[in-house]
Amino acid sequence: MNARIDPELLNEDKNMSHHLANAHLDALEEETIFILREVAAAFERPALLFSGGKDSLVMLKCAEKAFGVGRIPYPLLMIDTGHNFPEVTDFRDFRAKELGAELIVRSVEDSMARGTVRLSHPGESRNAHQSVTLLEAIEEFRFDALMGGARRDEEKARAKERIFSHRDSFGQWQPKAQRPELWTLFNTRLQPGEHFRVFPISNWTEMDVWQYIEREHIALPSLYYTHKREVVERKGLLVPVTELTPPKDGEEVVVRDVRFRTVGDITCTCPVPSTAATPGEIVIETLAADLSERGATRMDDKTSDASMEKRKREGYF
């Protein structure tokens, strides 16, 4: 005998699920706003790292709620490799202007011109070299706190880091000398030349980010949604065919429906197969994903688990 499902009970379940999801996002948003305000209160010269990517746009939305349009009390800082997707940098400029926020851009190419960054060969990715340019910007503006959009669910080294991550006078992270964070009490004491990296959305997941984007109707660069693109398959990834990433001998160029889960330097960022055209559709895809967004899309993370930790010790985001 077939059991009859009561439509009213189904509606009640849906309403309860929706309520719980909103309560979860409200709690994450509240924590992020608290951290953004705490940084403004505790530091003299903070900045918010802003690439124009989805995580930094979520942070910017929370900053807008925390302080208001035209009242964000710290500048936005972008470290540009010179190999970023133009759709993303254009959106970065648009959003900063829309909010009336000060935007500071410093370029890896300028560091190369100064001789502080030297590539081993012309085709080397500049992504890891952003650390040098970032440290130079910190010295130039005497920043004492930099807020970034890194999340603990992205990869192992980031999962080990505190929300308020102390950096020494060389910009280095010492994993075994981290300060405790109990009851949301943060030790923000600094010695001359030191600074903090702060991660306001550290406790968010990729799913949380997309659900929040859907709920808050946050506009994103078009690359995050499905589009047709020429790619080649390489080491289990779909590598976009560009002037910076041409196909190698023997590789077949195909056109696929893809989207980017994360957007970074063109030379190390890959799309994934997707027909998702809305945040809601991406939420459904994310539920079925079995790899983190960095693991599934970043060529520079396809080394050892220790590589990111080493880079962070050297000053990386």
Could you give a quick summary of the protein structure above?
By secondary structure, this protein is of the alpha/beta class.
Structure overview:
The chain is an alpha/beta fold. The chain folds into 2 domains: 13-207 and 306-313, HUPs (Rossmann fold, 3-Layer(aba) Sandwich); 221-301, no CATH class. 38% of the residues lie in helices and 14% in strands. The chain is built from 10 helices and 10 strands. The strands form 2 sheets. It has a 6-stranded mixed sheet, with helices on both faces. Strand 2, helix 3 (86-99) and strand 3 form a beta-alpha-beta unit.
Q: What attributes characterize this protein structure?
A:
317 residues; alpha/beta; Rossmann fold; four-stranded antiparallel beta sheet; 10 helices; 38% helix; 14% strand; globular
